[in-house]
Amino acid sequence: MSKPVILTGLRANGELHLGNYLGAILPMIELQKKYAGKYQLNMFVPDLHSFTTPIEHDKLYLQIVQNLKKYVAGGLDLDNEDTYIYRQSYVAAHSELTIILNNFVYYGELQRMTQFKEKSDGAKDTSISAGLYDYPVLMAADILLYGAEWVPVGEDQRQHIELTRDVALRINNKFGEELLTVPAEWKKQVEFAGRGDGVRIRSLRNPEKKMSKSIDDPAGTILLSDTPEAAAKKIMSATTDSQGEIHFDLKAQPGVSNLLQILALLIGEPVDEVTKKWEGKTNYGDLKTAVASEVKVFLTAFQKKLDAIDEAELMRKLESSEFLMRDVALQRLYRIQQAVGLRP
Ligand code: ADP
Ligand code: TRP
Predict the structure, then answer these.
(1) Where in the sequence numbering do the catalytic residues fall?
(2) Nearest C-alpha to atom 2 of ligand 2 is from which residue?
(3) Which of 160, 146, 188, 163 is nearest to 40 (CA)?
């Protein structure tokens, strides 16, 4: 296993929606197609990161498997030999390395993390967990354990990648340049992932906000488990504007632009091309009908694939990857334990 490593996390909890599919699942599958053969792809489920937001603990285990099935239905290739799919909590070295790294990351650094500030803002000290605070250190362990240079993630995770780089450089400085692979800097990561600023699907009801499972917005969110008919209805009643003409302008016409974006991604055409076809037209209903029809086609096919997935095959892939990755991770952990003085 000497290929350079691309590593990325597949979020585990909560039901997946069309925004997750178009913004995260599709790009990940394109990445697999583009880089498999030349790179090792670690696509893992950060299940220990799940507790940093409120979840239903009794549903977590099954939800992880159900969500992974959705990645497979979306096109993730289980037979690909360069791809490893594993659950973080099944490779104990992630937790062990976190405890070591904690001593090389500073209190002030973690307090400055935007995600921490946003999620803890306004909350009482007694309701902000140490887990939320330590989230970026566990993420750094996820990356450094496998010597991953490439970590394709959304802009919201940029600070965490930068922190991982800082920690790796700090440790290498102290214990030797060879110890940890420093992930590439952000600009290069963006070029590598080739997805520019990333796609941001908006809520169909409040198009100023992103489509999200965290917001209580069932009419604005299309779940991958919605029936195709219900999803089409949500599109038909999407919020638009009163300008009366179709243009791609996320600021002035976020609702209409969102529909153009969804349509483009579903039919696999650049949004500029799709916009050309609709530009200046005055009947919003026609656009909604076209998008609703594509959403129906997509969901029908997606759900059919999902039903046909062989869960036993998925479990075999998970378990064999976990078996191998435990070994890979332990070897690197051992070198770090040696460097910090825990092993001879
Ligand atoms: P949510 O906001 O629904 O809780 P997550 O934060 O769990 O979603 O995001 C999981 C992945 O899906 C991330 O890679 C994120 O960038 C992507 N994603 C989430 N919402 C959207 C959206 N509305 N448009 C595009 N991508 C999204
Ligand atoms: N924090 C990432 C997210 O919210 C998920 C994640 C955890 C991750 N560990 C990672 C992503 C390591 C890439 C590498 O999307």
Answers:
(1) 119, 210, 213
(2) 9
(3) 146
